[in-house]
Amino acid sequence: SFGSLNTSIATGDPNLLSINEWLAASATVPDFIELFNPEPVPVNLGGCYLTDEVAGFPTRSPIPPLTFIPAGGFLVFLPDGQTNFGHAAFKLGEEWGSIGLFSPQLALIDQVLYGPQSRDISMGRTPNGTSTIEFFNVPTPGTGNPGILGDYTVTNVTFSLMSPNQVWKYNQTANLDGANWMAANYVDAAW
């Protein structure tokens, strides 16, 4: 409660984390690396390392202190060469690559090796945290991977907003502030 003393809570073992999903060839969303925590308590990743050079450069991207992954949850990093929070100081290769997660003592926690990637198709473990790796047509950064996830299955649904032969138009030049242009009876003949 407000004004009371801070109390510590139990945290989990980083050695149980897994690299759960990654996207290395994207045209529409940023590439990502997703970690999964199977434990019922949060895990402190501070002091751990992410890398794309498992054998030669394990300390490539240090994870800042007090970076927690929630209980039974996911944490996403953007491998875009930046060093600020939530980013990784490297970029993933589209042709092939490796991703490694190391402890502060440089013990390998988890690694994945991957081959050629397809645009906007991620790879990951299914179910979450297991050894089975699949391709996912719809990337799911920060959420459970497609496949059997407890009592539900993730599926893709496509809605057609308009028929292919429907005529539509837009107003590129006028300022429509204050106009009720979304009303069904709005006259758009001048567009």
Q: Can you write the helix and strand succession as a string?
A: EEEEEEEEEEEEEE
- What is the CA–CA distance across the termini? 57 Å
State the low-pLDDT regions, or none.
149-154
- Coarse shape: extended
The amount of beta strand, in percent, is 25-35%
Report the biggest beta sheet as strand number plus sense, adding barrel if it closes: 6 strands, mixed
Helix content estimate: under 10%
Q: Name the average pLDDT.
A: 86
Say how many strands there are: 14
What Rg, in angstroms, do the CA atoms define? 22 Å
The number of helical elements comes to 0
The strand order across the widest sheet is 8-7-2-1-11-12
Structural class designation? mainly beta
Word description of this protein:
The protein is an all-beta fold and 191 residues long. The protein has no helices and 14 strands. The chain has strands at residues 18-23, 32-36, 43-44, 49-51, 61-62, 68-69, 74-79, 87-88, 97-102, 108-114, 122-125, 133-136, 148-149, 152-153. Strands 8-7-2-1-11-12 form a 6-stranded mixed β-sheet, with no helix packed on it. Strands 5-4-9-10 form a 4-stranded antiparallel β-sheet, with no helix packed on it. A two-stranded antiparallel sheet has the order 3-6. β9 and β10 form a beta hairpin. It is extended and about 70 Å long. Mean pLDDT is 86; it is low at 149-154.
